[in-house]
Amino acid sequence: MKISQVLTAALCLLVNPATQGSNAITRPTTDFSRAEAHEQMPGGATSHKKKINRDAYSQPSANMSFERELDFKVGNGFFKRVWVSAPSSTQAADGLGPLFNSRACQHCHIKDGRGHPPNGHEDSAESMFLRLSIPPQNEAQRQALRKHLRKVIAEPTYGTQLQDFAIQGHKAEGRMQIDYEPVKVRLGDGEVISLRKPMYSIQALGYGPLHPDTMISPRVAPQMIGLGLLEAIDESDILALADIDDANGDGISGKPNKVWSDAQQKVMLGRFGWKAGAPSVDEQSQAAFAGDIGISVPLHPDGAGECSEREVKCKQAPNGNSPQYDNLEAHKVVTDLVAFYSRNLSVPQRRDLDNPEVLHGKQLFYQNGCIACHTPKFVTRTLPDRPEQSNQLIWPYTDLLLHDMGEGLADHRPEGEANGREWRTAPLWGIGLTPVVNGHSNYLHDGRARNLLEAILWHGGEAQKSRDAVREMSAADRAALLHFIESL
Amino acid sequence: MHKTLILFSSLLFATQAVAVPSEQDVLNHYADIAHATYQDSLNTAKALAQSIDTLIAGPTEKNLAAARAAWKQARVPYQQSEAFRFGNPIVDDWEGKVNSWPLDEGLIDYVAASYGGSSDENPYYTANVIANRKLTISGRSIDTSHIDKKLLAGTLQELDGIESNVATGYHAIEFLLWGQDLNGTGPGAGNRPASDYNPKNCSWGNCDRRADYLKSAIGLLVDDLEWMTRQWAGDGAARQALLNNPQQGIAVILTGMGSLSYGEMAGERMKLGLMLHDPEEEQDCFSDNTHNSHYYDALGIRNVYTGRYTRVDGRQLSGPSVSDLLVAKNSIVDKQLRTRLDDTLAKMQVLVDSAEKQGIAYDQLIAEGNLEGNAKVMAAVQALLTQTRAIEKAVNTLNLTPISFEGSDSLDAPGKVLR
């Protein structure tokens, strides 16, 4: 089965030019009378068929051997690990913070699922934080940004994210406050949807004032399924979809992000994160260890985590760097296991894909321009050390490119090549299971959308036309469209 | 032909002579074992509470030794109860309060400078609950003037937004009785002096507050175990949840067995420690009791399969079990699983003997360079893995609705599993 897929793909590449759209296997279908071959398995052979419940996002790649699964479980152990303050006798578990957003990966990436904004001012923002940065202040900083050596310039005191927790004896950096104002949208059939537009402020600053030009960007924890597969998409397939200047005049101008890879020591395509700011699963998770938990790792060896020089007490605090772990709190053995775990969270199989309403919704999705950015399928490349992710026909419904989403969603904070109005197309696979896994249905980068329809109605900029088409749809069509998206 | 017929009929007769229990029967007996196990845990925890009272009233080395012994005794039934995890939501939602690990030692009490990063005199080592009537955490001033159950179970647990459970449970009590194990991969456990509880001659300061913490922690543990014991009584919610959906209930029993064997024990509690060679990467790191913890975990898994449990007072419970259901379907699979369960216990016994008879504790076995010791631990891991495959076969044999165990093959692909 797998071999024939590879051969077919290879054959198509020989016959057709190697551009994504013209490849027979990955060309979007025009036949909506029935489900496509293999559409049942959005993650290819990695898709699991286990019961859909709270654990739906936490299963390993279904094609993983029993032996490798134990490493997945050990990686999960580290992912769940609640880190403690240093000094502690559990040297492989200490070094928390001193400033942090969460004590454990799992506390934000709850059940490997999607974070959400706090419920009201008294609730803590467990699975969300604010990114911070300032515009370049001098030529050296401008150069660094231009050359992609840095993707942002850190706020001088508070760094690139606001840590709202601290270990005993320390102050947190501050607390995020969200206030909402309603934005009404009238649908074509007269129904009025009240969206909520968030406004962000920071309270209780712990270490002095913010730089006057500070830019903030709210970020909830994104879902973690299928990451290894996204990593396995050939770069050329992604670049083939880019059209920065909209040369073909279709109104869509996807842009690849370019970011510095600390691991490879060169500029690479960004794939992960709300603005595609991370080039690989490993670098994303190492950055998260350091920034979110304050745990030093091979790529970020400072035991104090994300403390700036101005956060003196933090810098001077004991840390958990241990000589037997390469003078780190989490050394390569740990970070490799966490990356392996993160790469192998399985995309559940589709539900309802033969349902007539779902098929109708699919047709609407395809024919209303949604697939211009939410690219349906790819075939992953061969990665010798990653058999699970190799040569799979996958259905992520993303092009991994940056798109201008309009003023409504803008955070006005550039990140690498992404400007203040651009966001990476989010993968839609598994999205419909968010309520089952996480008990909520908050979508978009800051969880402002309380359901999928709200998320669509926030689409502006390049997506304005498609969004307007949805607004004008009949209620029945809209229901079909949503049913399709929920079935992914 | 004739001989075979007779053989077949006598076999049929033999099978029919023993009635196959119903799923309800099996679940009721499983719940009886759960009730007994938690009740034993409760009673040994109460005995521990008494020994702690004695220690606080008379902080002598003798009383400290007695309290430590009571703690180890309390672990015997509790570890056997871990087989009820990973499938019974009531247990899973509660478990973090009583058995969380690692512990945030520095948040609770004084910690050794030798574990710290910098060698400078460091005021931060005293930023702990026991030493401070007021503690700043995340910029909020927490009133720690009274150390009581409310402080531990309320404020401290919810410190970082999500319940952290880094300051309560068996291991918090263990830490307060033993202190940090400063021996690394050398022999010996934690060795906190009894004078840590002697207000007249207090070795590390704040003896009264340390006593309050210890009392609060054991008080909470007793409350929590009391609650859980009730959930398994005749009308208890945990029992009822299983009886409401008997086929699913049988799946729960096997899910617990499989998940505890594979992801939790083989993976997180054993292989992880071997990969890190960290001496304190062990369940009972302060007391060096990990060999017993692992042994009783394995015993608990066997208990729920065979329907047999030996209580702390020696009474034996036995009754309808999953094993009976399996024998009726395929006695070979049952026999294989029983063999695996026994083999795992034998490999755990090797670890117990190493610690108790040869004086080489678990943290020494996992040390870097101890090839023989590492191999003993790895043998137990291997036995757990083989056991997991046998449990999967049992699930398939019983045609249970697809369930997921933490880290094993999908039951929808039985061809993949049955080798």
Describe this structure in words.
- The complex is a heterodimer of chains A (488) and B (419).
- With 488 residues, chain A is α+β, with helices and mostly antiparallel strands.
- Chain A folds into two domains: 206 residues, no CATH class; 215 residues, no CATH class.
- Chain A is 26% helix and 12% strand.
- Chain A contains 14 helices and twelve strands.
- A two-stranded antiparallel ribbon of chain A has the order 1-3. In chain A, strands 2-6 form a two-stranded antiparallel sheet. Chain A has a two-stranded antiparallel ribbon with strand order 4-5.
- Chain B has 419 residues and is mostly helical.
- Chain B is built from 15 helices and four strands.
- The longest helix of chain B has 35 residues.
- The C terminus of chain B is likely disordered.
- At the A-B interface, helix 2, strand 3 and helix 9 of A face helix 5, strand 1 and helix 10 of B.
In short:
The complex is a heterodimer of chains A (488) and B (419). Chain A is α+β, with helices and mostly antiparallel strands. In chain A, 26% of the residues lie in helices and 12% in strands.
